[in-house]
Amino acid sequence: MERQWLESPLGQRDKTQGREDYRRRTLDYALKDFVPKPEFKPKPQAAPKPDVNPDDWRSCFHTYAELLTAPPLEFVIKDFLQKDGITFFGGLPGHGKTLVMLSVVKALLTGEDLFGCFPVTSPSKRVIYLVLEAGLGPFKHRLELFGLLRFVDEGRLFVRDFALAREN
Question: How confident is the model at residue 36 (pLDDT cuts 50, 70, 90)?
């Protein structure tokens, strides 16, 4: 960093070239908040299990017997949101994705029927909401409109917006 600075037009000034104390103080100030990123170290590869035949691709899939004994389908919101699954809502901007998702969150946290039609069979203790479409200010406004801000205060709703995700 010092070499590049000294080669730049600002580094050619007399006080930069002639005063070691000025250079040290300026560099110390520029680096005061610098925290180096930890060096990336790839995880060591686990040795293959000796009893697994890599040519037996069928072992990567469930058997017929496993499927027959699988537990039945359960819902946390009857006929709407299944248990033990991941749910995504997709659509064009302005088509109600956030309206639906915040309604689902409210139903899960309050135990009230979703849209007055779908009973909550298993209310949630906590919900994580990842906000990818808006900044924190606009999303806070939506939380207030839905009466959900109190759940953040209670430690039951965890919100992470896209700006926070970019910083880390």
Answer: confident
